[in-house]
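Researcher: Next entry in the queue.
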Amino acid sequence: MHRKERGATIVEAAFTLSTLFLLFLGMLGFGVVFGNYQLMTDAAREGARYAVIAVNTPTSAQVATRVCSYLVSGTRPANCTTPHAVATCTIAGGTFPPPKAVDGVYVTVCPPIKQPNNLSIRYTEVSILRNVKLPLLPNIALHTTAAMRNETN
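Model: Structure for this entry, 153 residues:
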């Protein structure tokens, strides 16, 4: 009986170890992607916050530069400090990413919305789009949007 089972342990170990190795690689890849996404989300929030609390309203390029300085070199999209335009903000019914979007920072100042109490609310949206490439996996498109409002009389 033992002659027929010779080598069975090695075959079972090979299947088990290869499965565990793939599981480990999947967890590692998920951790890298999730860490990049968190950093991108924090950078978008920082850019939107900077756009609404600054004394002098910053330009889109200044906001994009602020966002890019928040990102570490490995998570910066190509041409990071040159902001791209979005036709309609997501608050006004637009969608992100727009068709044929490329990696980069998108800064949009939504048109002011008049409120009944004579306040004018202006939203600034900062969106980041970046493709992450991991070994042995296809590109993963990450995008995040942060919007903050600025109330003025």
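Model: DSSP finds two helices and four strands in the chain.
Researcher: Noted, moving on.
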